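A note from the maintainers: we've had questions about how concatenated examples are separated. There is no special marker in the raw files; a new sequence line simply starts the next protein. For clarity in this README we add a label.
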Amino acid sequence: DAKYISKRESKKKFSVSMQHYTFAVQAFIETIKQYGMNDYEFEIYEETTYTVIENVRNCKSELGILYLNDFNRQVLEKIFAEYRLQFHPIFDCGLYVYMAKTHPLAGKEQIALEELMDFPCLSFSQGTHNSFYFAEEVLSTVPYKKLIKASDRATLLNLMIGINGYTICSGIICEELNGAEYVAVRLDSDEKMTIGYLTRRDMHLSKIGMDYLEVLGTFKAKDF
């Protein structure tokens, strides 16, 4: 049907690639609701860190959502410069232990790293680019006694419930997406992570891209 094809071709595309952040997915959902689907074709990719960078570099996505910290900043910024990409900070946050509410440590106000060592640390697999610098868990160089890698968020959440696993993250959690069975507890650490977005240096942000980032920025208002 030629009419259908021409209508589809005339749609503008909005695409975001991200590390595994529920708040970034939630912001994407709210952007879809704001704009509707008549004029836009939407694409969202939860990917390995390297693929997030590649997708922005190759214009597959307008924006890439990831984090920098003291450990990975120098290496990743060198890659950004080489690929002519720009990292823009959105907000800084402390570190949290994310676990099922049934976890033995879930009721604590703060958790020390040593207390976690008998439990499995869950980590997102980075595929062939498995360098510490691409890790999504912030304390990637800690010699965990038990470490399990998974490729997607649903599996990670199942492992939290099934074997008392945990992951270390920003603590900005969307219950409406992950469900109410999980909790984020502050980790006893001075380390910070900077959540931000990646763009190509030679591209101007679209109006929908700016609106998406505005929604994303509202998550920092929560007390994390």
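[label: protein 2]
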Amino acid sequence: MNRLENAFKGRKALIAFVTAGDPDLDVTRAICPVLEESGADVIELGIPFSDPQADGPAIQAAGQRALRAGTTPASVLELAESLKKTVTVPLVLMGYFNPILQYGEERFARDAAKAGVAGVIVPDLPYDEGENFYAALEREGVEGILMVAPNSSEERLREAGRRARGFAYCVSLLGTTGTGKDLYADLESYLGRARRHFSVPLAVGFGIDGPQRAARAATHADGVVVGSAIVRLIEKHGRDEKRLSAEVRQLVGSLKEAIRPQSPQG
């Protein structure tokens, strides 16, 4: 069992997303251990990009702040490597393909492995358009994590399930992150379809802005991804380390409690 699948073992996994370099790399470096201490089982570092099509306003704005601070794919990889000293949970990078292509697919895969990264998510690179990159990740022992959506066909679910590594990222709504939309109405049926094709854990992301939606998603999934709610706290308190740490601990702790399996009464 690999590091990512192991993060789901015996628990509902909480995956916490932050945009690397927002408002600067030092803040990201400081907040990641707080995420782990508060209950995050996996930490997802977003690589900022100028045109993040899958992201809503909060993460788009975070990406712009990070870019203005000079954050690059190389500096995010350096950040991930430095976090090996303070963070024990698996790190996942989430980034769009254009910066990875400019960096070099083979080089990125090699440097991600060197940095200790467990997995990589590329929202705009489906498996059938990224075979070279996903093969490069696999050669380096880094999991290429695939995304599916409520409108994914059975054929795409089947093929994605065959190729899936680490966990499957199941988008919970049709739209972008952090827009306030509710989760997909027939989430149970959607995840049931996905589960027929995937042997790896299923994590639900997009639209999970607090404990209530996290609990609903975790009822049917193996884990939940929370991003925009954390990013908003960083936007508000990023220059006040003590206040930011306290707010993040409260939010992440409440999310973890909400998805914790409840013991039978009686």
